[in-house]
Amino acid sequence: MQSKRSTSFKTLNHVEYNSPVMNDETVDTSIILPAYNEEEGLPLTLQSILKVLPEAKERFEILVVDDGSTDNTASIARSFPCKVISHRKNMGKGAAIITGIRNAKGRKIIFMDADNTYPAEEIPRISRELDTVDMVLTRRDSKNIRLLNLLGNKLISSFIRLLSGFKGTDPLSGLYGLKRELIEKLDIESRDFAVEAEIVVKASRMGSSIRELGINYNERAGVSKLKPFKDGFVIIKTILGLLILYNPLVTFFLPGAVLLLLGMVISALTFRKPFEAFGVRLDIHSFIFGVMSFIIGFQLMINGIIVDLYAIRHKFKKEDRLVKALNLRTLKYLLCAGVVSFIIGAGISVDSVISWVKQGFGYYFETRKVITALFFTFFGLQMIFSALAGYIFVREYLKKSR
Questions:
Q1: pLDDT tens figures, 79-134
Q2: CA-to-CA distance for 179 and 181, rounded, in angstroms?
Q3: How far apart are CA 114 and CA 42, in angstroms?
Q4: pLDDT tens for each residue of 351-398
Q5: Which residues, including other chains, have CB under 8 Å from residue 6's CB and lie 6 or more apart?
Q6: Structural domain that includes position 132
Q7: CATH number of the domain that 217 lies in?
Q8: For the chain, which ranges sit under pLDDT 50?
Q9: Number of helical (H) and strand (E) elements in the chain, helices listed first
Q10: Same domain assignment for residues 163 and 51
């Protein structure tokens, strides 16, 4: 017997409970199927799921999220013993997954594409594995993946592994499971095909335990909704956006360190006089570039540490050695170094002014001396204010870690 209840989500048309077997209090694992115009693949997918669940020891519920389909997806879903949730319009795979999560009752949640490409017999295994790890991914074989999609997957997978520390091989698979506690920490935001990339990047940076299982990948039923170039670009853009917060070491600290070292070398070579090597001459303009590169690099490094502190403080990522090395004593040293640098810069500035006065306020040719004075002065101020800003975040971090 079907029953209906109202929902507060404006994006939904209706929610229907078609399962006479399971109730909210007895669900161990929720299976969420996001579906958009999947009238061919959905019935095959649901049949295969319902075939394997009776043999499982755990209790499952099935949720089909009809993402504004224009075909018979919704009516087909209602003919099966599952919970059917319909969006009024197509909002994207990520939006369908978020809706499914909001309506799921299980302490473990498994996501599966509704196109009959994934083996339903792996669902009980994934559910069992979630008893010991935070997240279970599946690694597809390549026999039924189109060449363009396969190349795109490998490129994006390599990108995710390089920048997020992910240890697996197939982060974009459409069959995976997570514990509810982890899902609540992830705060999923993607509304499109970038949702899997977001989940994997965030889970990896948080230090979650992740296990990957090899599976067979079946031929798709129906037409694929994935647009390789458009959706691939969206996925990469999402990954880069996440890295600002989840991996500031890559986005801020390392680029800053490169600029700082480059500036240090160039400034040292051109500090007193022009430098020539292999027919290349570096003069006053190179000295100015070196000084500016050093200052900007240092600021990027400080920004990276502060963002890292913020992310750890709010549990977006796990602790790292960089943050552990930054404590109140380190900030005191930084503050003192800033004061010393400022005094040196002020002293050189005063000496430059005195020299200029002695020359009768005429042309002043000691440009390197002036640049050096400005460097020590502004770099000192930069260190002072960076130490003060860092103190706020370090203190909050230390409070949380106690």
A1: 999 999 999 999 999 999 999 999 999 999 999 999 999 999 999 999 999 999 99
A2: 5
A3: 5
A4: 989 888 888 887 777 888 999 999 999 999 999 998 888 888 777 666
A5: none
A6: 3-243
A7: 3.90.550.10
A8: 1-14, 17-23
A9: 14, 11
A10: yes
DSSP letter string, 330-362: HHHHHHHHHHHHHHHHHHHHHHHHHHHHHTTS-
Report the half-sphere exposure of 201 (CA within 13 A, side-chain side). 30
**Residue 57 β-bridge partners:** none
**φ/ψ bin of 381: left (φ > 0), alpha (ψ from -120 to 50), beta (otherwise):** alpha
Phi/psi at 3 (nearest 5 deg)? -135, 155
Domain finish residue from 243, 258, 275? 243
Answer for the pair 164, 247: CB distance below 8 angstroms, yes or no.
yes
Residues 159 and 197: beta-carbon distance below 8 Å: no
Residue 57, C-beta contacts closer than 8 angstroms, at least 6 positions apart: 124
Cα Rg for the chain, rounded, in angstroms? 29
All residues at 6 or more sequence positions from 157 whose CB lies less than 8 Å from its CB, including other chains: 169, 170, 171, 172
Sheet holding 175-179, edge to edge: 3-4, 12-17, 83-87, 60-66, 29-35, 108-112, 175-179, 135-140, 210-215
User: Which of 197, 224, 243 is the last residue in one of the domains?
Assistant: 243
| CA–CA separation, 275 and 296 (whole Å) | 23
* Beta-strand relationship, 60-66 and 29-35: parallel
Helix, strand or coil, per DSSP, at residue 274: coil
Number of domains in the chain: 2
- 384 and 255 share a domain? yes
